[in-house]
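Support request, please re-run this one:
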Amino acid sequence: MITVTDKAKSRIEEIMKDEQYDSNYFVRVAVESGGCSGLSYKLNFDNEEKKGDQFFEDKGVKVCLDIKSFLYLAGTELDYSDGLDGKGFEFHNPNASRTCACGESFSV
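Re-run finished. Output below.
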């Protein structure tokens, strides 16, 4: 399961409103090969379910993971930062043994 902080929820709701996404849309989170540590996070909005998708809901935010990504992201917290260090979504992944300095890639 992925949990969502209040800041991430607010930003997701803001994006969905700005992009005029209806309630059929959800947040799709995935892990892809790449980045300086070997694996990178991908986050986008989708409204089409794919075979093997795993759905979770936290604080009213519907989150979707493919089965491969679920294995890497179980227990991860999705957060949003708008501080001086940069704006964007952040993943607090307890499964990551190493992350890069920018926080966009990891290894297990």
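The chain has a mean pLDDT of 87. Residues 6-18 form the longest helix (13 residues).
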